[in-house]
Amino acid sequence: QLQLQESGPGLVKPSETLSLTCTVSDGSINSSTYYWGWIRQPPGKGLEWIGTIHSGGSTYYNPSLKSRVIISVDTSKNQFSLNMRSVTAADTAVFYCARLRWHGYFDLWGRGTLVTVSS
Amino acid sequence: DIVMTQSPDSLAVSLGERATINCKSSQSVFHSSNNKNYLAWYQQKPGQPPKLLIYWASTRESGVPDRFSGSGSGTDFTLTIGSLQAEDVAVYYCHQYYSSTQTFGQGTKLEI
User: Fold this and answer.
1) A3 and B CB contact within 8 Å
2) Shortest Cα distance from B85 to chain A (angstroms)?
3) Which of A60, A105, A112 has its CB closest to that of B55?
4) pLDDT of amino acid A69
5) CA nearest B37 in A: which residue?
6) What is the pLDDT of residue A32?
7) Which of A28, A103, B6, B43 has the fewest C-beta atoms lying within 10 Å of its C-beta?
8) pLDDT confidence band for A102 (50 / 70 / 90)
9) Distance CA B97, CA B54 (A)
10) Which residues of chain B have pLDDT under 50?
11) Residues A40-70: b if buried by 16+ CB within 10 A, e if exposed
């Protein structure tokens, strides 16, 4: 079955840029049926949608984060990425990548990666 | 943004008993063009990612036990676990994907 795996630094300094990559394995990121997204979860708290991308390049962002976030896709590597600039301690969270079915609900999730923002 | 409010925040249910979790949206998530409610439910166990249980408010995801069921329409939705098992201890989230800004409920912690 298709799997997703997040990768990237676990520690980022305040004011710097958080960069994560999600690698899709045992399946193709190229699909008209599926979109790909990022969700975060601060320790002990709930889920927040960050943004979504299609393999064709269309992007959709949470307005509350849109000014700091860029999501991109590299179909040749079967990967999509998240860049979040000007991070603060409030951005400390477990970041999940996930697949969206029909640009709707999240039907497959990566295991998540904890990113801590601290000097 | 559509605000999703779950109730209760936590509940304790005996093994074999029924558990009911409610989710209310600040505006309707029903789309009349296809008669679908854009509402999903997820289960999250400690240290694990969320797992999709229900989509379109009442469609059970493949492989999900049939003791899990979803109901409701418009702004009011319910997740019911028909006969609680020990492995159902988790936090449950509702999620609306009607709006271009997707939002989640705050979560309901289910304990035995």
Assistant:
1) no
2) 23
3) A105
4) 98
5) A104
6) 84
7) A28
8) confident
9) 13
10) none
11) bbeeeebbbbbbbbbbeeeebbbeebeebbb
> DSSP per residue over A7-40, as a string?
ES-SEE-TTS-EEEEEEEESS-S--SSEEEEEEE
Amino acid at B47: G
* % of chain A at pLDDT higher than 70: 100
Q: What's the distance, CA A102 to chain centroid?
A: 18
pLDDT at B53: 98
DSSP designation for B87: G
Q: How far is B50 from chain A (nearest CA, A)?
A: 7
Closest residue, chain B, to A66 (C-alpha)? B101
Chain centroid to Cα B51, Å, comes to 11
